[in-house]
Amino acid sequence: MTEPTSLPTHPKTLLLLACYFKGERFIEQARRRGARLHLVTQEWQKDKPWPHELLDSFFAQMNEPPLRATINTVAYMSRGIDFDAVVGLDDFDVETAAALREHLCLPGMNASQARFFRDKLACRTELFRLGVPVPAFTRVVNDGEVNRFVERVPGPWMLKPRSEASATGIHKVHSTEELWRLLTEKGDDRSFFILEKFLPGDVYHVDSLTAGGQVLFAEAHRCVTPPFNVAHGGGIYASATVERGSDDEREIKRINEQAITRLGLMNGVTHIEFIKSAEDGRFYLLETAARVGGAHTAELVEAATGVNLWAEWANIEIDGSNYRLPERRFDHGGLLMTLSKSEHPDMSPFSAPEVVFRSPEPWHAGVVLRSPSAARVKELMDDYGGTLRRDFTAVLPAATKATH
């Protein structure tokens, strides 16, 4: 499924940034395509099982290095390596990769574009200007602006970090007193948050591949339990393919493509989250990310379609606008993930032939399902969800900062 349709005129030399351990399938496919690969990570990730045999060089910086330190590191590497492209493999690498492209005058997403895929305020401001539906929102820099917003938009509200990943650091706020207490507690960090209207409803995500400015592949999924609820209350994260050919699938894919093209993404992978409002039945975009979705989203997509997002992202980095999507399937997939009470849980109860993947991480339990039948996927998710909840699930306090 990942063979190229044509070979590049010369082997690409890629600088890979990874502040967390991920992207093995990207590395494998890029090497299979003949690319030269140089990976920069951080000290605390250096002993992870990176595929060193596939890398031309490997460098671990200090933990959480300032941007200037990373620029100096890569500039020094560039004395002997002529990089063709910079790839940020994690959400937290997107802006750093963009800054390096600008500093080295390399092609790809620049810093201004990258901000739309990392900064929720910048994203919403631009998408609102471009006519893409987003929840009502405001900056929290100016007191008067905040007061006018809460007078105009009834609570509850969501106070969100502008640049954290997933549901990390989000507060659901029920009163103006609570809001001002939280803003006061943020101190100098206050301006790094955004306030928006809380919209009850179902959360969805669309995972896409774009080349030459065209969205060539998009898979829509509905989260059975909203990520915010899982992050703050524990339990099971579950996601399943949206019914194929449904009105929901058509509408969410339309808005997804509208957002990607209007934000100017030319080549790459995206993970975009939406909510379908219980109040008016409309889809609103929640956040955008220029990366592969976490929590085994790649395995979910591959189960249903045969397309591996990491491998195809590598092909896009090599082929650019000449990229061609491989043949794909149109099955249904389901994903169940939870923290586990034991380090290496016994997954033998999950033995149906539709189980195509079991989570290998310690202290986690999870499966990915595949079937031509959406009803069969739902049946198994209901059954296995109950088993996970009863026999496996552990609950930890909500994280205030991303840890993976």
Task: Tell me what the structure shows.
This protein is an alpha+beta fold. The protein has 3 domains: 13-108, Rossmann fold (3-Layer(aba) Sandwich), CATH 3.40.50; 136-197, Dna Ligase, domain 1; 201-391, ATP-grasp fold, B domain (D-amino Acid Aminotransferase, Chain A, domain 1), CATH 3.30.470.20. Helix content is 32%, strand content 25%. It has helices at 24-32, 67-77, 94-104, 111-116, 120-129, 143-152, 176-186, 227-233, 247-262, 297-305, 309-319, 374-391, and strands at 13-17, 36-42, 57-61, 85-88, 137-139, 157-161, 171-173, 193-197, 201-211, 214-223, 237-241, 268-277, 283-289, 332-339, 355-358, 364-371. It has an 8-stranded antiparallel beta sheet, sandwiched between helices. β15 (355-358) and β16 form a beta hairpin. α1 (24-32) crosses α11 and α2 packs across α3 (94-104). The two termini are 29 Å apart.
SSE arrangement:
Blueprint: E1 13-17, H1 24-32, E2 36-42, E3 57-61, H2 67-77, E4 85-88, H3 94-104, H4 111-116, H5 120-129, E5 137-139, H6 143-152, E6 157-161, E7 171-173, H7 176-186, E8 193-197, E9 201-211, E10 214-223, H8 227-233, E11 237-241, H9 247-262, E12 268-277, E13 283-289, H10 297-305, H11 309-319, E14 332-339, E15 355-358, E16 364-371, H12 374-391
Parallel strand pairs: 1-2, 1-4, 2-3
Antiparallel strand pairs: 5-8, 6-7, 6-8, 9-10, 9-12, 10-11, 11-14, 12-13, 14-16, 15-16
Helix pairs in contact: 1-11, 2-3
